[in-house]
Amino acid sequence: MKNDRRRAPKGGRPRPAKTQKPAQKRTPRPAAQPAPPADQTPRRFRLGVIPGATPGKWVDAWRERMPHVGMDVVPITVAGQRAALDDLDAALVRLPLDDRDSLHVIPLYDEVPVVVAPIDSFLMATDSLTADDLTGQVLITPGDDVLGPLDLPTQTPSFPTIETTEDSVATVASGVGILIVPMSLARLHHRRDVDYRPLLGGRTSTVALAWLRDATTPDVETFVGIVRGRTANSSR
Question: Which residue, of 31, 102, 181, 231, is most buried by count of CB atoms within 10 Å of its CB?
Fold first, then answer.
């Protein structure tokens, strides 16, 4: 019988037989998203956004899901939001909106109105306010107001209309009146010398997603799905 042990070098122990290491498994890489053809202009998705709206999480989700379709976030005004829609894929708007028959509109959320006043005003001594708390206060209504007539026991300013909400907040800081706006606008134009409190029972402002009925593209449907919380694998 032949000896399977390997011949040992002089004065040493037999060398053990070499063992073959098992092959390592390779983790497959995720498939890359197909890039558009070189001769095709990359698509862009133009999203209009009114002041105060915060589409950040939806924009991030779009860029993750649609890496080859860029997104342009276009600031628009509430006064010009309907006209702006003609040149946009979709927009975050405030209701009411003119010409609803030509649009698809999805209400997203209602914003609470808040009273903006100087930080040392007695109105800021409580967590919330009612209409009766504002009796006799000078109510500033800016030229870009989005709430409309509020029917409150307040006084009309003796000075001309202030064109913008931002300038109105600065005027409030000087102590000559108060301002009532959706909470997002109070946050957008916040200053150290003013503060705000919710107005209980006040008129809310609805933010919605809108786009032209005749321009419902697959990209628009994808963005609608993102806003509604559908995943990439969800059925429409």
Answer: 181
